[in-house]
Write a structure and sequence with these properties.
Blueprint lengths: L9 E12 L2 E7 L6 E7 L3 E3 L2 E2 L19 E8 L11 E8 H6 L3 E4 L1 E11 L6 E7 L5 E7 L3 E3 L2 E2 L6 H4 L5 E10 L6 E10 L22 H8 L5 E12 L4 E9 L2 E8 L3 E3 L2 E2 L14 E8 L13 E8 L8
Parallel strand pairs: 3-7, 4-7, 11-15, 12-15, 18-22, 19-22
Antiparallel strand pairs: 1-2, 1-6, 2-3, 4-5, 6-7, 8-16, 9-10, 9-14, 10-11, 12-13, 14-15, 16-17, 16-21, 17-18, 19-20, 21-22
């Protein structure tokens, strides 16, 4: 198992200088760390178009400049890159990038997941529940609070001892690393963050299931993979609005996400991710909570699409869904 180390992650805006190959482009930007102009490498599959990464929109064979012409202003998230000769001394590798001009025309907000972030313990639940808060400070001097459960924490390759106090196992100001995904806030249109994996020392790697479940003939086969897709901290998430398209059964439903002008996508969601009026619907049947046409707020991510015909098909998966009606007032 590998040891954790601090990695610099930056958010920046730059201009496309030109292509290196069919699938690589260089972006020049001013680095906030040193105030100097530097270069970032953008690969086609890391560019988002209409909410989805190119690799997930079946356009990965297209030339990178088909989506980002020379002179295009791109917003991106990146980490350091070890320079290679064919990358023209690029110092940064772009994890996700998108055209700022297109972004302004869309009705969604891009939210990259958080992976391998160094955090400090800032709060342990005072009521005795085994949960708490980690705080991550990015290079823009912004603090992000991340909620976690003790069941998601690994310390030097082992889970925490449930018989010991969480405060003694995770003292305040101790450093941990974590992966996290965005969730809809119960108040307003903001977001919160939920840790999917917390560790210190050697990182514990859970088994990854890379099977493409975006086409399946049996809806019951999707419960586990859907949760895996929604929990992927390396995904590019989008936040937007939509409505219930169809309730499939007690567990699953389809929503229609409004991407932009005359651009809609179907989103599969599981009841474990649904809340209404601040209450989780995980233990209730979807048909008892939602009906076709109900307005929704969603955070979701696109996924690869299979090529075979079957009875069930989808392109997007939700990790957080809220009923957008206001809470009924008391009589």
């Amino acid at each position: 198992m590998e040891s954790s180390r601090t990695i610099a992650f930056i958010e920046a805006t730059g201009v496309v200088q030109g292509s290196l190959t069919k699938h690589k482009a260089l972006i020049k930007f001013t680095c906030k760390l040193n105030g100097k102009e530097e270069l970032a490498l953008l690969k086609t599959e890391k560019f988002a178009h209409r909410g989805a990464l190119i690799s997930q929109a079946e356009d990965e064979a297209a030339h990178v400049l088909q989506f980002v012409e020379v002179g295009t202003t791109v917003r991106f998230f990146a980490h350091p890159l070890n320079s290679k000769e064919d990358e023209k001394d690029a110092q940064w590798f772009i994890m996700y990038g998108w055209d700022i001009k297109e972004e302004k025309l869309l009705d969604i907000k891009y939210i990259p997941g958080l992976s391998n972030r160094e955090c400090t313990v800032t709060e342990i639940d005072a009521s005795g529940k085994r949960k708490g808060t980690l705080t991550y400070e990015n290079l823009n001097d912004e603090s992000i609070d991340i909620s976690f459960l003790a069941s998601k924490v690994w310390s030097f390759g082992a889970r925490l001892n449930p018989k010991q106090s969480l405060k003694t196992q995770m003292p305040l100001d101790n450093v941990f690393y974590c992966d996290a995904i965005p969730q809809l806030s119960t108040s307003g249109d903001g977001i919160t963050w939920m840790a999917t994996h917390v560790w210190r020392g050697p990182r514990h790697h859970s088994q990854n299931n890379e099977t493409d479940y975006s086409v399946s003939s049996e809806i019951k086969e999707l419960i586990h993979p859907i949760k895996n897709i929604g929990l992927n901290c390396k995904a590019l998430f989008v936040q937007g609005q939509g409505q219930v398209l169809r309730i499939i059964n007690d567990d699953f439903g389809l929503a229609l996400l409004h991407i932009g002008n005359n651009i809609f996508e179907s989103v599969l969601f599981h009841r474990a991710w649904v809340s209404a009026f601040g209450t989780s619907m995980a233990s209730q049947k979807l048909k008892d909570v939602l009906q076709d046409g109900d307005p929704l707020r969603l955070i979701c991510t696109s996924t690869s699409v299979g090529n075979t015909k079957s009875a069930f098909r989808f392109k997007w998966v939700a990790c957080s869904v809220q009923l957008a009606y206001e809470e009924p007032q008391g009589k």
